Amino acid sequence: MNRNWIATARTLSEALPYLQRYSGAVVVVKFGGNAMGDDDAMAEFARDMVLMKQVGMNPVVVHGGGPMINSLLGRLGIESQFVRGKRVTTKETVEIVEMVLSGLVNKRIVQAINDAGGRAVGISGKDDDMMVCEADDPELGFVGRPVEMNVQIIRDLYTAGMIPVIAPVATGMEDNETFNVNGDTAAGAIAGALRADRLLLLTDVAGVKDSAGEVVTQLSPDQVRDMIADGQISGGMIPKTETALMALEEGVRAVIILDGRVPNACLLELFTEHGAGSMIRSTEPRVKPRGLRQGEAGL
Ligand SMILES: Nc1ncnc2c1ncn2[C@@H]1O[C@H](COP(=O)(O)OP(=O)(O)O)[C@@H](O)[C@H]1O
Ligand SMILES: CC(=O)N[C@@H](CCC(=O)OP(=O)(O)O)C(=O)O
C-alpha cells in the first residue's frame, strides 16, 4: 500500500479527538494583511476555513489589509503614518480605507472561500450596526474604538451555514461618520462579544518571542503584562497582546498568536497535538485531548 495513503489515514484518525472537541465551537480568525500572501496562500487559507465549517465549527473571519491600503494611498501620493501601530486617518483617507477593506480585500477573501466550496458572506462593522465606535484618540482622526457590539447578524450567518468575512470598518455614534478600526482590535471586540471559544490572530511571526528570541508556547495574562512592562513585547505585538488580554476578560476561552504564512496554520493549531504559535489563556495549561465522547465539552 502507498505509504502516503497510510500516513493520510493516520492523520485523519489522530484528528478525531480534536474534531469532537471543537464541534460547534466559534473560532474567530484575524487574517492580517501581512499573512495574506499570494493567490495560492489565499486559496489555502480559504480551504482551511471551509474545512473547519465542514467539520462543524463556526469560523468567523475578521481581516486586515494594512499593506493593501498603503499601496493604494501610495499610488494616490498620500503618505501612510502610524502612531502606536494605528493609522492616522483623515476624512480623505477613511474613504480609501473603506474602499480597500470593504471592497477589494473583503471580496477577495469571500471569493476564495466560495471557490473552495464554502458559502462566504462579506460584511463590515457597518452592516446591521454590528460595531459602533467612538473616536479612539484625537491624534488619530477617524480611527474607531468599538463601544457597542451587535453580533446577532454574525450568529445568524453562521447558524445558516455561512462563513462571515468581516472588514474592520465601522459606524460612529453620531453624524454618520465612518471609522477605520485596527484589524486586531475589531477581531478582539467581535470575539469578546461572541464569547468565542478561540481567537486566532494570524500574523507574520511564529508567535510571542522572549528576549532570547524563542517562541513562548503558553502564556498567562500576567506573563504577557510582565513582558510588555519589561520590553520583551514591543511594536505591533503590543496592540496584538493587549487585544488578547481584553478578549480573555470578555470571556474568550483562549487566544492564539500564530504565523499565518505557515501552510495550514489554523489546522495545525486546532487539529494537531503540536499546536502552533503562542496560546494565551487564564487558567489551565495547554492540555490536548485524549478522546472525548461526542458532545462532551473539552475546550
Ligand atoms: N515579543 C515579540 N514577539 C514577536 N514579535 C514581536 C515581539 N515584540 C515585537 N514584535 C514585533 O511585532 C510584529 C507583529 O506585529 P504587526 O507587524 O503589527 O503584525 P500584523 O501586521 O500581522 O498585525 C512582529 O513582526 C515583530 O516585529
Ligand atoms: C486604525 C488602523 O490602523 N486600521 C488598519 C486597518 C487594517 C489592518 O488592521 O490591517 P492589518 O491587520 O493588515 O495590519 C489600517 O488602516 O491599516
UniProtKB/TrEMBL annotation:
<keyword id="KW-0055">Arginine biosynthesis</keyword>
<dbReference type="Pfam" id="PF00696">
    <property type="entry name" value="AA_kinase"/>
</dbReference>
<comment type="pathway">
    <text>Amino-acid biosynthesis; L-arginine biosynthesis; N(2)-acetyl-L-ornithine from L-glutamate: step 2/4.</text>
</comment>
<dbReference type="InterPro" id="IPR001048">
    <property type="entry name" value="Asp/Glu/Uridylate_kinase"/>
</dbReference>
<feature type="domain" description="Aspartate/glutamate/uridylate kinase">
    <location>
        <begin position="26"/>
        <end position="258"/>
    </location>
</feature>
<dbReference type="GO" id="GO:0042450">
    <property type="term" value="P:L-arginine biosynthetic process via ornithine"/>
</dbReference>
<feature type="site" description="Transition state stabilizer">
    <location>
        <position position="30"/>
    </location>
</feature>
<keyword id="KW-0808">Transferase</keyword>
<dbReference type="GO" id="GO:0005737">
    <property type="term" value="C:cytoplasm"/>
</dbReference>
<feature type="site" description="Transition state stabilizer">
    <location>
        <position position="240"/>
    </location>
</feature>
<dbReference type="GO" id="GO:0003991">
    <property type="term" value="F:acetylglutamate kinase activity"/>
</dbReference>
<comment type="similarity">
    <text>Belongs to the acetylglutamate kinase family. ArgB subfamily.</text>
</comment>
<comment type="function">
    <text>Catalyzes the ATP-dependent phosphorylation of N-acetyl-L-glutamate.</text>
</comment>
<dbReference type="InterPro" id="IPR037528">
    <property type="entry name" value="ArgB"/>
</dbReference>
<dbReference type="InterPro" id="IPR036393">
    <property type="entry name" value="AceGlu_kinase-like_sf"/>
</dbReference>
<dbReference type="InterPro" id="IPR041727">
    <property type="entry name" value="NAGK-C"/>
</dbReference>
<keyword id="KW-0028">Amino-acid biosynthesis</keyword>
<dbReference type="InterPro" id="IPR001057">
    <property type="entry name" value="Glu/AcGlu_kinase"/>
</dbReference>
<protein>
    <recommendedName>
        <fullName>Acetylglutamate kinase</fullName>
        <ecNumber>2.7.2.8</ecNumber>
    </recommendedName>
</protein>
<keyword id="KW-0963">Cytoplasm</keyword>
<feature type="binding site">
    <location>
        <position position="180"/>
    </location>
    <ligand>
        <name>substrate</name>
    </ligand>
</feature>
<keyword id="KW-0547">Nucleotide-binding</keyword>
<dbReference type="InterPro" id="IPR004662">
    <property type="entry name" value="AcgluKinase_fam"/>
</dbReference>
<feature type="binding site">
    <location>
        <begin position="65"/>
        <end position="66"/>
    </location>
    <ligand>
        <name>substrate</name>
    </ligand>
</feature>
<keyword id="KW-0418">Kinase</keyword>
<feature type="binding site">
    <location>
        <position position="87"/>
    </location>
    <ligand>
        <name>substrate</name>
    </ligand>
</feature>
<keyword id="KW-0067">ATP-binding</keyword>
<dbReference type="GO" id="GO:0005524">
    <property type="term" value="F:ATP binding"/>
</dbReference>
